[in-house]
Design brief:
This protein is an alpha/beta fold. It has one domain (about 5-155). Helix content is about 35%, strand content about 15%. It has helices at about 5-35, 50-60, 130-135; strands at about 40-45, 75-80, 115-120, 145-150, 155. The protein has a five-stranded mixed β-sheet, with helices on one face. Strand 4 (about 145-150) and strand 5 (about 155) form a beta hairpin. It starts with a helix and ends with a strand. It holds the Pfam family FSH1. InterPro entries: AB_hydrolase_fold, FSH-like_dom. This is Ovarian cancer-associated gene 2 protein-like.
Length: about 160
């Protein structure tokens, strides 16, 4: 691997590590809310926050120890965000996925049981491709997806 490739892997590793810290902090907050007998009904995220929403759902689905036993959240809301392959820890652990060409490692379509309201511009989002948004939305068994364009909002299943 050349110098530029090594620098890219370091950046990916550091980004992944920062997201793991943030994920652990978020799990701690959810546990504290649950233990105080005031669990959160849901979690809302926009852009990178929406990536965190999907991380919660995927890790909860994968029975990650940080999320096992949590009754909350019972739903998530994703505003303009999708699964980011550099932020999702594969079930085997050990760092970020080595093959970043894959969209995600984990469940297939309609396998994630956590309810999700998914809002995104599937047509002209400047960051996420239509394919990534659709594939992320389709992970959820119980979902509502709103396709937001500059002129209308559509609600397909």
């Amino acid at each position: 691997m050349g110098a530029s490739g090594g620098g890219m892997m370091r950046m990916v590793w550091e980004t992944w590590a920062a997201m793991e810290v943030a994920t652990t902090k978020l799990a701690d907050k959810l546990w504290k809310a649950q233990e105080s007998e005031e669990p959160l009904d849901g979690v809302l995220g926009f852009s990178q926050g929406a990536e965190m929403v999907h991380i919660i759902a995927l890790l909860k689905h994968q029975l990650d120890p940080r999320f096992q036993g949590l009754v909350s959240p019972s739903f998530v809301i994703s505003l303009s965000g999708a699964v980011n392959p550099t932020h999702f820890e594969p079930i085997s652990g050990g760092g970020p996925p080595q093959d970043l060409s894959e969209l995600y490692f984990g469940p297939g379509p309609r396998e994630v049981a956590l309810r999700c309201l998914f809002v995104g511009d599937f047509v002209s989002d400047g960051w996420y491709s239509s394919q990534r948004l659709t594939t992320t939305k389709d992970l959820y068994f119980d979902r509502t997806g709103y396709l937001v364009t500059t002129s209308s909002i559509q609600c397909p299943r």
